[in-house]
Write a structure and sequence with these properties.
Elements (H helix, E strand, L loop, with lengths): L32 E5 L4 H12 L3 E6 L7 H13 L5 E5 L5 H15 L4 E4 L14 H29 L2 E6 L12 H21 L4 E8 L5 H4 L3 H10 L8 H12 L10 E4 L7
Parallel strand pairs: 1-2, 1-4, 2-3, 4-5, 5-6, 6-7
The structure holds nicotinamide-adenine-dinucleotide (NAD).
Length: 279
């Protein structure tokens, strides 16, 4: 600890800043490896692109979804990522299936040489008034949004603890705090994901692993198109900034939370909602 210096007048000055110890892999992000779940489309793709822009190799997984061209989107995403000159690995892998997640993680380590960042982005919504919501729909949302994130966190935890470095960011939602009508399962799942974020931050903090969540408002993705247009219009008008988020608005914050600049932030939820939560 530096001792305070004194001017001739004898007044105490602030301590002279001393160089801080820098942990291995904290110097920069280039050359590190990120895993983004559900990275083929929307927010996950934007997160993956921002990692790649910073020279981070990217692995992402996805599953097919009815009425969507996820497999084709995955190919496009992979091509766009490679254009940044980074290594890329992508595969179909259902985060609800622990064995599949463990196999995916092992494969990423073999293909890309390690893992330093995990972004639990894979998520679904099954919206219906509570009295109409089937238990299958409830379970689907919980299994994907909460259990899926737990599986992925567990699958990297041993590695992150051993290397004494790692960052985890969970994609929650403003709906965990300010639910709309008909989102009981989704809101409950995102609130549980925030609980998981805090618990994981406590357990992994001693190993220099930061765990945070972002809570986006309404983000312009295909998932948003499934909502009634009057809901989206109202949300846009209510937002303090008067706009919807682009996926990149979320991607930038996620990657910042993985950067060395954010090394003292853990167990937090960062709202990326254009002020919707304060309106
Ligand atoms: N779009 C928004 O307005 C908004 C707002 C707040 C939070 N979010 C959250 O952001 C995340 C991404 O949403 P999006 O809008 O980009 O939607 P999206 O539907 O485009 O992306 C979801 C991705 O997750 C993948 N996925 C779904 N279930 C999976 C599973 N079991 N295993 C592996 N992958 C799976 C899909 O293949 C898809 O690529 C979700 O967690 C969502 O809840 C979105």
């Amino acid at each position: 600890m530096a001792s305070p210096r004194r001017r001739d007048s004898g007044a105490a000055l602030a301590p002279v800043p001393q160089p801080q110890a820098v942990l291995p892999n904290e110097v920069g992000m280039r050359g590190n490896v990120a895993v983004v779940t559900g990275g083929a489309t929307g927010i996950g793709r934007a997160v993956a692109m921002e990692f790649a822009r910073r020279g981070v190799a990217v692995a992402f997984n996805y599953i097919d979804m009815a009425g969507r061209d996820i497999v084709e989107q995955a190919l496009l995403t992979e091509t766009a990522l490679r254009a940044f000159g980074v290594a890329v690995y992508s595969a179909k892998c259902d985060v609800r299936d622990l064995d599949a997640v463990e196999r995916f993680v092992e494969r990423v380590k073999a293909e890309l040489g390690g893992i330093h960042y995990l972004v639990n982005n894979a998520g679904i919504a099954r919206d219906a008034a509570m009295w109409r919501l089937g238990s299958d729909q409830w379970r689907d949302v919980m299994d994907t949004n909460v259990t899926g994130a737990f599986h992925c966190t567990q699958a990297v935890a041993r590695l992150f603890r051993a290397q004494k470095m790692g960052k985890i960011v969970n994609i929650a939602s403003i709906q965990a705090f300010h639910p709309s009508f008909g989102v009981a399962a989704y809101a409950a799942s995102k609130a549980a994901l925030i609980g998981l974020t805090r618990a994981a931050a406590i357990e992994l903090g001693p190993s220099h692993v930061n765990v945070n969540a972002v809570a986006p408002g309404y983000v312009r993705t295909e998932a948003l198109e499934a909502l009634p247009s009057d809901v989206v219009d109202r949300a846009k008008k209510t937002t303090v900034l008067g706009r919807l988020a682009e996926p990149e608005d979320v991607g930038n914050v996620v990657v910042f939370l993985c950067s060395p600049e954010a090394r003292h932030i853990t167990g937090q939820v960062i709202f990326v909602d254009g002020g919707l939560s304060i309106a």
